[in-house]
């Protein structure tokens, strides 16, 4: 939690958790063997901060983005 910015919302945290799970699944051949570790969360937080998920590419946000960016 100390790695998160103060302005992160519950929605950001949900996206981080989902992305961490996806990161974990990408490393394992069998989903039942997958475990989410701290590395997965750190990568997800980095992705959110860099705009790869979440606020920067979130077409449901209160900002107007070009339509091409909605699906980036």
Walk me through the structure:
The protein is mainly α and 72 residues long. The chain has one domain (10-70). Helices cover 49% and strands 0% of the residues. The chain contains three helices and no strands. α1 crosses α2. The N and C termini lie far apart (27 Å). Residues 55-60 have low confidence and may be disordered.
| Strand elements, count | 0
- Total of domains: 1
Averaged pLDDT: 74
Biggest beta-sheet profile: none
Which series of helices and strands comes N to C? HHH
Secondary-structure content class: mainly alpha
Number of helices: 3
What overall geometry do the principal axes of the alpha carbons give?
Answer: elongated
Low-confidence stretches: 55-60
Rounded to the nearest angstrom, the radius of gyration is 13 Å
Describe the structure concisely for a colleague.
This protein has 72 residues and is mainly alpha-helical. Helix content is 49%, strand content 0%. The termini are far apart.
Fold blueprint:
Elements: H1 10-27, H2 38-50, H3 67-70
Keywords summarizing the entry:
72 residues, mainly alpha, 3 helices
């Amino acid at each position: 939690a100390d790695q998160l910015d103060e302005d992160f919302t519950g929605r950001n945290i949900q996206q981080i958790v989902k992305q961490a799970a996806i990161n974990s699944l990408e490393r394992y051949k069998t989903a039942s063997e997958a475990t989410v570790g701290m590395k997965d969360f750190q990568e997800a937080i980095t992705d959110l901060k860099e705009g790869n998920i979440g606020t920067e590419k979130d077409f449901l946000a209160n900002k107007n983005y070009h339509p091409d960016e909605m699906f980036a």
